[in-house]
Design the sequence.
């Protein structure tokens, strides 16, 4: 499913299964849940809170009052391996001090190039990282060092 027109409103949005491409802004007053195979975030999201599941890619800004929860999922800024991109998480409330939660089993994939540039996950607020509990794994950070360009 590709969202190509802006979505606004007061309700909840839940995406279950399949692949979702957010190509137009979403602005709602409640939560958005992405429990999908993949989510490509290429437009801004503004809502109360976001639960991310599946393989999340893209470059966008997510603004919430209650933060973003990410568990048993994979976050890879950019739309393709080697694309350097930024995902921003902004919290617009002082009542919640956690902007981003790395839950059990989550994976963050970051690309770095030979010039020192990299993908970025910019979080305005605190980040909680859940430790493994002996059954479920702790969050993982994967660094992908991009090969320098070759000249012929």
Sequence:
């Amino acid at each position: 499913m590709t969202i190509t027109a802006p979505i606004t409103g007061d309700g909840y949005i839940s995406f279950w299964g399949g692949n979702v491409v957010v190509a137009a802004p979403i602005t709602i007053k409640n939560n958005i849940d992405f429990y999908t195979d993949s989510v490509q975030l290429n437009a801004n999201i503004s809502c109360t809170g976001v639960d991310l599941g599946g393989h999340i890619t893209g470059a966008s800004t997510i603004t919430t009052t209650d933060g973003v929860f990410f568990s048993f999922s994979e976050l890879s800024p950019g739309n393709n391996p080697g694309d350097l991109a930024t995902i921003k998480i902004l919290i617009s409330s002082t009542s919640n001090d956690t902007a981003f939660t790395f839950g059990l089993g989550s994976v963050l994939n970051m690309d770095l190039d030979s010039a020192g540039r990299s993908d970025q996950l910019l979080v305005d607020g605190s980040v909680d990282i859940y430790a493994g509990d002996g059954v479920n794994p702790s969050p993982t950070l994967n660094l992908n060092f991009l090969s320098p360009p070759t000249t012929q």
The mean pLDDT is 88. The first strand starts at residue 2 and ends at 3.
